[in-house]
């Protein structure tokens, strides 16, 4: 998927087309080998598309890219457009989803390390 260029409303949303976002993560995305049409689907097909995201090593980066870029269509980071809209509505003050998700990852990793040391 990410090897192809997808145009949504005239804007390229894959391959670095959304602003000046660091898109180096795209090379590690599992969907890179999938036809883009498989991720820009509706209804029950979205759940099938989301299963690909479940094991992706760059799921958080992908989700942040879609949220920060306000990408309206497709499954990104394991979330549908409807799920992303709801999240954006619930958290309107977030300026950078990339920074927020990275901070959450660091917090989680730090807590896990502390738990291992105390065990």
In short:
By secondary structure, this protein is mainly α. The protein has helices spanning 44-54, 59-68, 81-90, 97-118; strands at 7-8, 11-12. The chain is built from four helices and two strands, in the order E-E-H-H-H-H.
Descriptive notes:
This protein is mainly α. A two-stranded antiparallel sheet has the order 1-2. α2 packs antiparallel against α4. The N terminus is likely disordered.
**Mean pLDDT, all residues:** 81
Tell me the structural class: mainly alpha
Helix count equals: 4
Q: Give the oligomeric state.
A: single chain
Low-pLDDT regions: 1-20
Taking Cα atoms only, what radius of gyration do you get, to the nearest Å?
A: 15 Å
Strand order of the largest sheet: 1-2
Percent strand: under 5%
Q: N-to-C terminal Cα separation, in Å?
A: 42 Å
Shape: globular
Work out the number of β strands: 2
What is the N-to-C succession of helices and strands? EEHHHH
Largest sheet: 2 strands, antiparallel
Please bin the fraction of helical residues. Answer: 40-55%
Supply database-style keywords.
single chain, mainly alpha, two-stranded antiparallel ribbon, disordered N terminus, 119 residues, 2 strands
Task: Write the topology of this structure.
Layout: E1 7-8, E2 11-12, H1 44-54, H2 59-68, H3 81-90, H4 97-118
Antiparallel strand pairs: 1-2
Helix pairs in contact: 2-4
């Amino acid at each position: 998927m990410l090897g192809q260029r997808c145009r949504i409303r005239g804007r390229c949303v894959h391959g670095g087309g959304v602003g000046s976002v660091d898109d180096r993560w795209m090379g590690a995305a599992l969907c890179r080998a999938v036809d883009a049409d498989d991720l820009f689907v509706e209804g029950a097909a979205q759940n099938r598309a989301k299963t690909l995201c479940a094991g992706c090593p760059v799921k958080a980066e992908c989700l942040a890219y879609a949220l920060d870029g306000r990408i309206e269509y497709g499954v990104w980071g394991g979330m549908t457009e409807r799920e992303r809209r709801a999240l954006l509505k619930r958290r309107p003050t977030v300026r950078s989803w990339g920074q927020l998700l990275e901070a959450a990852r660091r917090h989680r990793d730090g807590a896990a390390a502390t738990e291992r040391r105390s065990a």
